[in-house]
Amino acid sequence: MAGRDKRRRAAPxxxxxxxxxxxxxxxxxxxRRIKGLVRWIVEEVAAGRSPSIVLHRYRNYCSSAxxxxxxxxxxxxxxxxxxxxxxxxxxxxxTSRLNVLLRVLFVVQQLLQQNKHCSKRDIYYxxxxxxxxxxxxxxxxxxxxxxxxxxxxxxxxxxxxKGLVMGWIRFMEGEKKVYCITSVNAAFSIPVDIEAxxxxxxxxxxxxxxEKETVFQxxxxxxxxxxxxxxxxxxxxxxxxxxxxxxxxxxxxLLHISQPLSQFYILFPS
Length: 270
Description:
Elements: E1 8-9, H1 16-46, E2 52-57, E3 82-87, H2 93-114, H3 120-124, H4 128-131, H5 134-148, E4 164-167, E5 169-173, E6 176-179, E7 188-189, E8 197-202, E9 206-210, H6 213-221, H7 224-227, E10 230-234, H8 241-257, E11 263-267
Helix pairs in contact: 1-2, 2-5
């Protein structure tokens, strides 16, 4: 009976094309700035000079995000609390820090050119002997964000996604098919790149967000989605940014295609 219901496909939302174009333009601009910086450093070294980069220090920069905001980053452009001068030829701590920054910048350049995404842990495992620990990569990413006045999302560096989704929805993540609707009680990982989501199809009547993975698993075991035309999402505790952004995306799609408006519920322990 459920399979006979007409599936609702979301038409392209107004502004999506403009958002994609703006994102491509931002990536192209960032690539030009990265290439310009690297070219300047090479020219300075070739001329026998010691290139120096001045980085402002902030109390909080690109380290957290407002849980109510769909933005992937909470970068701060407030008054800096100090500055660091990184020099390549001076044999001190800043030399190593600049070396790490350039290594990470090279990875970021490849990600932008290939339109790929990875986590800071993925970057760490590319050069573990140089980076030593993930925290070193994290600081380099922060330095790059400050240097270019951008967010980690602009660098295509994303957090490791821990969110799960199940229910009456299917979509494409780039060329990858995510067909929750063919097995509504099975858990699927939340995709990393929200901009790659397309061709969303759903017959869900509402979205249910649960805080705990144990509750999510109980609903799956009880075949909750099989008996209720819904989408269930969990952040497995405190939700990460990709999970929050996908909740907003799915709500946006359901509101766009549903008459009357779909409903949205949050279930958390008291």
